[in-house]
Amino acid sequence: MSRTTSALTRKALGNASPGRFAARLIGVRKSHRTPGGPAVEALRGVDLAVPTGTMVAVIGPSGAGKSTLLHCAAGLTPADSGGIHVGETSLSTLNERALTRLRRDRIGLLLPGFDLVPALTVRENITLPVDLAGRGRVDAGWSNRVITAFGPANRLDRRPRELTPGERRRAACARALIGRPEILIADEPTAGLDTRAADEVLALLRLAVSDMGRTVLTATRDPYVASRADIVVFLGDGRVLDRLSAPDQHEVLLRMRRSESAAPARHRRAER
């Protein structure tokens, strides 16, 4: 993307009606310090719009900046420069307490390390966020809908150790949806799963968009996962290299190879 095109994209994103997008990143830059070395630029002027009611997949190799992008979008990591919006809210205007409230009320997170609580049942794990926030009774209808979407009712009273890896991932996905977030941010949601389990997780994410009216922003290295999205954004060396709407797996793979060959093989330690 040329500098002129990038500038025009930023202007368009900045002027767009906020209601059209669940999240927007405009010219976002982020660097990480490396032990004993210089700062490495993980994001290098990223422009990204996530239309409301869609699933957007960010795809790229390890080190492309995918996880950094998601963490910035969720307000978990502050950007060095650029604008980040969730709906009409600019994250730069929020203090740490307000960011925590934003994530609790408006963002669902499905990230590595956000494991289920071993001592709780599946049902208790799923409803934990709303129970802690005191909203369990208010959203009882929604809670039942999300619990049903998880899958087999006979698994709900089991502990996480009694579940398959795919069931644990679906339970974590349901937990991320229980608060009725505007956007669900999922980093490598099918990593480590077999094909069947991955399909079941993807089906739940698609259900969240098509039947529950949510928006999903996910990151992946898998062309098949990306092909299940409505929009695919190709990231490499901290930059957006290409975009694709209504993708199929073959086209995603071709574009991914093309993007990887065009991106410099630098900053491989940028993504965290």
What does this molecule look like?
The protein has 272 residues and is of the alpha/beta class. It is 38% helix and 25% strand. The chain has helices at 3-15, 66-73, 96-106, 122-133, 140-150, 165-177, 195-210, 223-227, 249-262, and strands at residues 21-33, 39-51, 55-59, 81-86, 89-90, 107-110, 183-187, 215-220, 231-236, 239-245. It has a single domain, classed as 3-Layer(aba) Sandwich (Rossmann fold), CATH 3.40.50.300. Helix 4 (122-133) packs parallel to helix 6 (165-177), helix 5 packs antiparallel against helix 6 (165-177) and helix 6 (165-177) runs parallel beside helix 7. The chain is globular, with a radius of gyration of 18 Å. Residues 23-262 form the ABC transporter domain. Keywords: ATP-binding, Nucleotide-binding.
Overview in brief:
The chain has helices at residues 3-15, 66-73, 96-106, 122-133, 140-150, 165-177, 195-210, 223-227, 249-262, and strands at 21-33, 39-51, 55-59, 81-86, 89-90, 107-110, 183-187, 215-220, 231-236, 239-245.
Secondary-structure blueprint of this entry?
Blueprint: H1 3-15, E1 21-33, E2 39-51, E3 55-59, H2 66-73, E4 81-86, E5 89-90, H3 96-106, E6 107-110, H4 122-133, H5 140-150, H6 165-177, E7 183-187, H7 195-210, E8 215-220, H8 223-227, E9 231-236, E10 239-245, H9 249-262
Parallel strand pairs: 3-8, 3-9, 6-7, 7-8
Antiparallel strand pairs: 1-2, 1-4, 4-5, 9-10
Helix pairs in contact: 4-6, 5-6, 6-7
- Distance from N terminus to C terminus (CA atoms, Å) equals 24 Å
Estimate the strand proportion.
Answer: 15-25%
CATH topology: Rossmann fold
Order of the strands making up the biggest sheet = 6-7-8-3-9-10
Please state the oligomeric state of the protein chains shown: single chain
* H and E order: HEEEHEEHEHHHEHEHEEH
Give me the Rg, rounded.
Answer: 18 Å
CATH domain class = Alpha Beta
InterPro entries: AAA+_ATPase, ABC_transporter-like_ATP-bd, ABC_transpr_LolD-like, P-loop_NTPase
GO molecular function, one term: ATP binding
Keywords: ATP-binding, Nucleotide-binding
Protein name: ATP-binding cassette domain-containing protein
